[in-house]
Amino acid sequence: MSLSAVLKPRTISKLFLAIEQSEGVGARVRRSIGTSRLRNFSPFLLLDHFFVSGNAGFPDHGHIGQETITYMMSGQVDHEDFTGSAGTIDEGDLQFMTAGRGIVHAEMPRPQKDGSPVVGLQLWVDLPEKLKESEPRYRDLRKDEIPIVRPSDKVEIKVISGESHGVESVKDLAYTPVWMIDATIKPGGFVSQPLPEGWNAFAYVLEGEVICGTTVAKQYNNIVFARDGDGVEISVPDSLDEAARVVIVAGQVLDQEVVQYGPFVATSKERIYQAFMDYQNAANGFERAKNWESKIAKRIKS
Fold first, then answer.
1. Is 285 a domain residue?
2. Whose CB has fewer CB within 10 Å in the chain, the N or C terminal residue?
């Protein structure tokens, strides 16, 4: 891991707009990882910026072989699974879920009283092969657990996972090593963020407009970095009127095959086929799925 005092910025390998599409039941997402433009960017499998209004969401579905990170921008999301776990994450909270050998769950945003959409990010992260058969688990990270650093009067950084300006996050949030930094940058502000050497990294622009090197990135753009430097530098010109918000993410590259069918992720086709059989027959990790239905997904039916 290299955290150099003098940063050598990474170059940009790709920049593109996340296009809006349908997902789940009545939900809209802007997907920037997990499409033909960026697929299997190890360890990252999918990144959705989701917008859900009314009685819509993501009813009962299964996962294997991966972890999900859900970060709430506005509103609340209820979750419930076949292990009996249930809870709610609020604006500013995160949930780290390890699917492991198999889990069936539902994720249902709560309708907002003012009719505005529930908004958040969900990132899918591959699991190392040796941990793909682990037992499922959850770790909710509440917003008051997230340290905040202000390197200048024009920058505020939430250190969700990893380290920024000498401030470290809560430890042991996920099995696959991932850093996640949420930076709000006012006009004239500048972020210099070291990243672990050799990890894949990207930055997603939630709000506003930023400059990275000589490249301008606007809202809903994903900036994909090469592995050639020590970190990333992002700024907002003082000529602009509004602040920007960008999430910087880096993850340890996994040297393994990726075979994916939706939320089922393995290292071979045979394991995927077996997972479908297990899911249908409620076996080998999916025993608790037999006759199980979540309560929260029934909102859609009502």
1. no
2. C
Whole-Å CA distances, 292 to 63, 130, 136, 281: 15, 28, 16, 13
Global pTM value: 0.94
How many domains does one find in the chain?
1
Q: What are phi and psi of 281, to 5 degrees?
A: -100, 5
Amino acid at the residue 221: N
In SS3 terms, the chain reads as CCCCCCCCECCEEEEEECEEEEECEEEEEEEEECECCECCECCEEEEEEEEEEEEEEEEEEEEECEEEEEEEEECCEEEEECCCCEEEECCCCEEEEECCCCEEEEEEECCCCCCCCEEEEEEEEECCHHHCCCCCEEEEECHHHCCEEEEECCEEEEEEECEECCEECCCCCCCCCEEEEEEEECCCCEEEEECCCCCEEEEEEEECEEEECCEEEECCEEEEECCCCCEEEEECCCCCCCCEEEEEEEECCCCCCCEEECCEEECCHHHHHHHHHHHHHCCCCCHHHCCCCCCCCHHHHC
Report the CATH number at residue 179: 2.60.120.10
Give the integer Cα–Cα distance in Å for 279 and 138.
20
Is 183 among the domain residues? yes
| 245-281 pLDDT tens trace | 999 999 999 999 999 999 999 999 999 999 999 999 9
Asked if the structure places residue 256 within a domain, the reply is no
